[in-house]
Hints:
Layout: E1 4-10, E2 25-26, E3 29-30, H1 33-42, E4 46-50, H2 54-64, E5 69-72, H3 80-91, E6 97-102, H4 110-123, E7 127-131, E8 136-143, H5 147-151, H6 160-163, E9 170-173, H7 185-200
Parallel strand pairs: 1-4, 1-6, 4-5, 7-9
Antiparallel strand pairs: 2-3, 6-8, 7-8
Helix pairs in contact: 1-4
Amino acid sequence: MKKIAAVILAAGKASRFGSCKALALINDRPLIESSITAANVVTPDVYIATGYWHKALSQAATDNQWKAKLLYIDNWQQGIGDVISHVTHTLCDDYDGLLFLLADQPAITGDNVALLCQVYERHQSDAACCQYPDTIGVPAIINARVFDELKALKGDEGAKKLLMDRAHLIDKLALDQCNIDIDTPEDLENYVHYLTHMSSLW
Length: 202
């Protein structure tokens, strides 16, 4: 398998959530740990791209002994495009591909990410990403062949435009668990309620 680094995007302010969303607790575990654990299944090289909540995430990383390194993005306010560009410039010389994940996907598993990696490796594609009912998105693996385009991203434009570009060979997988994300406290409450209800059925 080619050398891949996983990057968990957690640089934003999470304004809709009102606090550090990545550290919101689900079953006594910070939300971001789902992505860290999933990423650790496919690579030991896991990075958390931080920004507004860097200090809080840095403390949590130490307290919880996360198997991940923090990568502070000083221009995180400029938008997700600048964050991805910064990350790619920093890591491009050491890796053949970058696996991007979010910090707010509570149901993501190592099996999900491993399957994505298997398809990516088998087809030698430019990228592999998740196919959702109405769009595509992360987790997504981007091949080094596309790094220059990632470096050119700016502002609020993320990598989705590249994933939808027909000039690239893109593998798309339906991974329903990855379609669950937490944007607001209500989302968190509903997800915790769902987990509680499901556990009561066993």
